Structure formats: C-alpha cells, structure tokens
Amino acid sequence: MTKTTDKQGRPVVAITGMGLLTSLGKNRDDNWRALMSGKSGLKTIDRFPIDGLRSTVAGTVDEFVSGADQQNSVWRSTYLGMGVGLEAIEQAAIGEEQNFPGPLFLASPPSEFEWPRLHELSETASELGDTAYAHLLGMARQQEEVREEDVTLETALPGKVLRHTFGTKGVPVTVCTACASGATAIGLGVEAIRRGEKAALCIGTDATVHQEAMVRFTLLSAVSTHNDPPEKASRPFDKTRAGFVIAEGSAALVLEDYDHAKARGAEILGVVRGYGERADTFHRTRSMPDGSAMIGAMVNTLNDGGVSPEEVDHVNAHGTSTPENDKMEALSLNKVFGDRIMDVPVASNKGQMGHTLLAAGAVEAVISLMTIKNNIIPANMNFETPDEAINLDIVANKPREKNVNIILSNSFGFGGQNACLVFSSGDEYA
Amino acid sequence: MSVSPTEVWITGIGLVSSLGEGLDAHWQALTTDNPKPVVDTKSFAPYPIHPLCEIDFSKQIPKRGDLRQMEDWQRIGTYAAGMALDDASIKGDDELLAKMHIIAAAGNGERDPEADAIVLEAIKGDPDWREKLNDLLLTNLRPTLYLAQQTQLLAGNISIVHKVTGGSRTFKGEELAGVQIVENAVQRIRAGQGELFLVGAAYNAARWDQLLALGLNQFLHEGKWKSIWDLDDGAITGSMGAFLVIESKAHALARGAKPYAKISNIQTGVDVDCLPEGVEGDRSGSPVLCGFGGEHHPMAGWADSNVVLRSPTSMLGHGAEASFPANIALAALSLSRGAFYSPCGNLRIEKPLSQKTSENLSTILVSAYSIDVGDGYEGAALVEKVDVND
C-alpha cells in the first residue's frame, strides 16, 4: 500500500476522536444541539460575589466541580481535560485503556495562587504587614504535608495527571500561547504526526473563572460590560461589542496518521490540512495596525496546507467581541480573501459560549469539524448592529446550511501570539 | 539504509546568572580552581538564593516603555535572548528574524507582593472577605502587572523588543520544559519544519511568590549554601537567563555562522533506572553536566564509575525551566574552548579531569530531572564538538 501523503509529501493528519465540554453542554452532542438551538451558555456569575465588578457575566462549567476543587482553577481545568480526553479516545477507539499510543499536547491555564488559598494561609499567620509573603512562608514551613491545592503551583501538574489518566507516551508538552494555546497544542500534534508519530492527543482546557481573573481582565478593559441580559453580553463583530466574556471549556482531538487510522478501520472525522503561526511585534495587547501578523498567520496556514483562499468555504473566527480584535480580524480577512470576502461566511462561536481562553482554539477546532460533518454553520449570536468598519458575511443569529468542505479557524492571543488551522473533510484523500 | 540526520548547530549563546554576564564571565568563574558561588543568604532568609549579577538592562532593552511593562524574569530573558541574537550576528537582520521561531519555556509570572500584602491585611479575620475582595483588587492591582504575569509574555516581549517574527511558542513544566524546548527545535530542524530557532528560558529567584510556591511544596533548602550533591532538604534557586540560537548546519554555513557545538541527540521520557541510557553516543568518554535532581540525586550513583560529573547548578542555582538551556550553553562553550570545568562542590563525586583529556573532549552529556524524579520525567542531550573541516 502506498503511503497517503499531502501535497508536500508529508503524512496526512486525520482526526479520529473528539471531545467537547463547554457551558453549552457536557459532550459533543449536547454542544451541537445547543449550537443549533442558539441557547446561550452565559449567565450572571454565582460562583463568587460580584460586588463592585463592572462585568458580571461568565460562561462557567459547573459540572465536575465540587468542594475544595471549586476553589482551584487548575484542578477544575484538569478535570475538564479528563472528561474531553475520555470522550475523544472513546470515539477514536484507539489503544488500550490508560495506554494511548502517542504523546500528549496540552494547553492548560496558569498555575497561580488563588485568593481562597492565600486567605486561608494568611489566617494562620499571627501577623502580616508589608512582608506578608515572608509570614506566609513561615506558615508554609510548619505544614507537615504538601496540600492537594498546592501541588497545582507546579506548572507540569495538569500534564502529569492527564498523562497518567490516558497513558500517553513520553513527557507531555504543555504549551501557552495565550488565547491561541488550543490551536498551538493541535499544531504541535500535527507536526508530530508529520514526523512519523502514529497518534497524538491534543487537549485545550481552561476553567479559570475566578475573582482575580475577572478583575484583571476588567483592568485591561477587555471584558464586556453588557451585563443584562447575560446572553447578550458577547457580541462578536457587532458594532456595540464591548469586550469578551470569560468562559470555561475544554476540547480534545485524537490526531492520527491517516493510513494508520484507515488500516484499523477508524472513521475519519476530518483532516488537519495545515497549521501556521506568526508573531506580532507591535504591542502586548494590540496587533500591528496593518494586520500583517494576523494575515501572516492565516497565509502561513493556508500555504502549509496547500489550500488556496478560493477553496475556503467558511472561517471560524477568533471573534472575541472586543473592539480591537474583531476590527483587526475583519481587516485581515479582507486582505487574505480579497474580492471573495463576501462569499466566505464568517462566524464566531464566542457570542454563544463566551471565550474559553486557552481552550478556545481546541474548542473551535471541534466545532469546525462538526460543521464540516453536518454542513451547517453554527450562528454568530448577538450580531444585530452591523459595524461599517467590518465588511464580512457574518452568519448572524441563526445557523446556516451550506456545503462546507474547508474551514479556516483563527486564534489570536495577547503578546502577539497568532496561530491558525485549516481543516477539511478528508474526502480528498478517500 | 540510514540517512544521517540534519546536523543541528548552536550558533549563538546568551547567558546571565549570579556568576556574571556573558560567556567569558562564566568560563572564568567555572574553570578557576575551587569555583565559588555567589549567594545571598539574607534577603529571603532562611532561604539562600543566587542573585542575578548587576545588569544594565537598557543595553538590550533600550526603550523605557518596554522595560516598564516587564517584570524581572522577562527582563532577564529578553536580555539573554538579545545577547544570543548579537552573538549569532542575527540582531537587526529582518530577513533572518522573520524566519526565526521562538521556543521559550516559562512558569508563572510574578505577582506584586506589596499589592497582595495590602489585600491580605485588609481581609484578615473578616468572614465576609470575599465580598470585599473585588474592590480591593480593583484598587490595588496594576493593569500592566497582569500582562507581566502571563507566561507567553517572555516570548511576546522578545518579539516586541528584538523583532523576532516567525512562530512563537512557550512551553510550561519546570525542568523538563527546558529540555522540551531544545528537543522541539532539534526535531523540527531534522524534519524540515524550520531552520532557525531562538530557544531558552529565564528564572528570577528573587521572588517571594515563587519561594512561597516552592516552600508549600517543600522544595526549598534552608540555611547555608551546599553543592547539589549535599543538599538533602530541597533546592537553592538561582536567577539566570539562557538563550540559544539553534539552526541547521546548512543554514548556518549559508550565512557564514560559526558553531559552538552541535546537538547530536536529545531525548525526554528516558526512564531507565534514572540513567539517560536512551541517549546514544559513546557515554564512557562523555563527561556529564547535570541539573538539580532532588534529595536523592539520580546521578550520584555514577560517582563510583569512571564518568566525570559536574553540576554547574551548584554554582548557578536551580533555575527550573532555565537550568537545562544554561547547561547546554555551558557544554557548548566547553567544547568550543577545548577545556572543561573545575570540580565544584562535592569532590568525592566531581572528580578532576586531566588537561589532556579535557583538550580532546568530543562530547558532553547534559541531563535534567523533574522535581519528582522517575516516571520518565527525565531528559538528556548529547552535545558534540563540531570539526569545522568536516
């Protein structure tokens, strides 16, 4: 049997398993039903007090979390990662239990101190003052044993736990490219398959709706202040958009060498045709005014996949609902697609489920592949007032039927982190 | 038929630590008889640290606005990255910078201990503290600080300051992330997935929040300085920045770049009785540079063999993600200068190497371990002398 290769002679990267868990639902099917119905995953935060906050809406995932874990976003994120990983591996029906035949690439959130723990520690100290941390360290010294919520301060922890859960091979690679992390995790998997790995598990997970996170994004003027009603808080590409809405979610993809998948009779859910990156040098939270870095990432991705802009049927946009991102993304898409721009429907899933931050690239990858499968594009919710600065065919407010074979999925993050993916049905290799 | 893999060259090094700035400072400090560490035992007592040497950051980060928006770990890393670019004659070359990919490793950004102290004092003993927290945080947190706290913003700042505009990735995961960034560059060069990489990490040991995180995990040594072979209660951390320019031999030759050394092999996940057996090469002739491996140091068992061990980590301190790139830099430096480092610390374990053997060294093994050694959380690379007449 001759090896199936892409236009550059590389192994073809198939997707054979997917898991999805967001504020819209706890598995792929629940999510798809919600995406088709237009139901929102966003609500007024009830996890902690919202007194004094200008933004009070989030897309929390409240399953799988309880007790002390509720207080620790790294454990929450890790549990979500377990859920989607299991769903993806089950669908792929690959490997033995706890023995996944390939590496793990993980996008997981920061391993930071959170206030419930800092407060608890400080309550045991007799004094604090200016040198509070020195006193907290004194308290730490008196602890006999390492506490479960403190092991998450090691950034390798989520990867170690998930590797143990799934039995992936080698040391897990944990990546952070901000809000592009989910896409980067998949990109790492794509490169690994092209280097000869038979399978790779790629997970993006983020469950970081906590008090300080809300405050930080507020201080950066990045989050939406449209609090009432909560389902209208996130308005990608709409003229009245006022910021993103923090959301929790997780997604997993089993990537597999195309021939390896075929040989064992696995269903091909789609193919990752290409992956590309381009770093921006302009500003920590803003992109190059000419869009060159976003454009570069999209063009690199299409080139990597051997896909011409004419072949793209739909763009699953980053579309955060911030004034800056959506304007720059629209400008960049216009440059990439030129005269054809109004023939390429664009939608952001974030109007409905908010921004799942480090997981977003993986979450939107799964939605893109389901879009290709079903030939229905989920809606860009809350697009009511067109913005004259945004010249795009937005899939406004209700899903649209369309034959979709190739999708470009964009992910852009603070710190000039731009990463894109291009997916196809894989029919071209059948 | 096996095709010999693409050679992977190290063509630029940026290194700063408590021992000084640049390769000469490190060479001098580590080849002198009985090298002496620079240790600060007072500032974070009872925890000693190796403080960063005096550095004028503006030499590599000229804009005050850029400097202001970084915390020290990012300044250290952006500085070392700039040194590596200068060293490889790439700084300012837009064409090369546009095809250069950054692979950085980083942990959590720095918190503001003063702001946290104010908040903690205000909520102490208050059962309704969570209701007050939002206002306290909104008043006391600086918006720019949060950006400094983001893991990807070391790489982000390197792009902004030095205009590196290929891909940008940041790996997390302490010591092993430091190995994985080098491994990723080597794998991609060999597979034709890139030709030119800027790879490295930075660590700031002078951080209360980081010390607290390590302290809660019982990972810190208290008291006087000891070599890593003699530490039995945890690590001594050290500030450092280590960046490497790594490129394919063909790419380096085409632009006339000179190599320090090549990376002949690199692996993570080697899990053979804690010995990096998986790394090919003639180990009997290779001295080893190793990092901190916890209280039961996995390499200590090698002391009874003929293998010559050194741990520059005794002198530099434990630098988490930055330790492995720093040790790779030191291995490449040693091979390029045809001499080896003096024993530092425990002389039973670190045996001297004769001058003749040092001059003829062709390979050095560099190894790293996760805090909890075992379970495959180990990695190693073989760094090899480049014969320029090849």
Briefly say what this structure is.
Chain A is an alpha/beta fold and 430 residues long.
Give the topology, please.
The complex is a heterodimer of chains A (430) and B (390).
Chain A: E1 13-22, H1 28-37, E2 43-44, E3 57-58, H2 73-92, E4 104-107, H3 115-124, H4 132-142, H5 157-166, E5 173-175, H6 181-194, E6 199-206, H7 211-219, E7 249-257, H8 258-263, E8 270-277, H9 292-305, E9 314-316, H10 323-337, E10 345-347, H11 350-353, H12 360-374, E11 376-377, E12 393-394, E13 400-401, E14 406-413, E15 417-424
Parallel strand pairs in A: 4-5, 4-6, 9-10, 9-14, 10-12
Antiparallel strand pairs in A: 1-7, 1-8, 2-3, 6-7, 8-15, 11-13, 14-15
Helix pairs in contact in A: 2-5, 3-4, 6-12, 9-10
Chain B: E1 8-17, E2 20-21, H1 23-31, E3 49-50, H2 64-68, H3 72-87, H4 94-99, E4 101-105, H5 113-123, H6 129-140, H7 143-148, H8 153-162, E5 168-172, H9 174-190, E6 196-203, H10 208-216, E7 237-238, E8 240-248, H11 249-254, E9 261-268, E10 288-290, E11 309-310, H12 313-316, H13 323-337, H14 355-359, E12 363-369, E13 378-384
Parallel strand pairs in B: 3-7, 4-5, 4-6, 10-11, 10-12
Antiparallel strand pairs in B: 1-2, 1-8, 1-9, 6-8, 9-13, 12-13
Helix pairs in contact in B: 3-8, 5-6
Tell me what you see in this structure.
The complex is a heterodimer of chains A (430) and B (390). Chain A has 430 residues and is an alpha/beta fold. Chain A has helices at 28-37, 73-92, 115-124, 132-142, 157-166, 181-194, 211-219, 258-263, 292-305, 323-337, 350-353, 360-374; strands spanning 13-22, 43-44, 57-58, 104-107, 173-175, 199-206, 249-257, 270-277, 314-316, 345-347, 376-377, 393-394, 400-401, 406-413, 417-424. Chain A has 12 helices and 15 strands. Chain A has an 11-stranded mixed β-sheet, with helices on both faces. A two-stranded antiparallel ribbon of chain A has the order 2-3. In chain A, helix 3 (115-124) crosses helix 4 and helix 6 (181-194) packs across helix 12. Chain B is of the alpha/beta class and 390 residues long. Chain B folds into 2 domains: 8-111 and 149-384, Thiolase/Chalcone synthase (Peroxisomal Thiolase, Chain A, domain 1, 3-Layer(aba) Sandwich); 114-144, no CATH class. In chain B, strands 1, 2, 4, 5, 6, 8, 9, 10, 11, 12 and 13 form an 11-stranded mixed β-sheet that branches. A two-stranded parallel ribbon of chain B has the order 3-7. In chain B, strand 12 and strand 13 (378-384) form a beta hairpin. Chains A and B meet through helix 3, helix 4, strand 5, helix 6 and helix 7 of A and helix 5, helix 6, helix 7, helix 8 and strand 5 of B. Strand 5 of chain A pairs antiparallel with strand 5 of chain B.
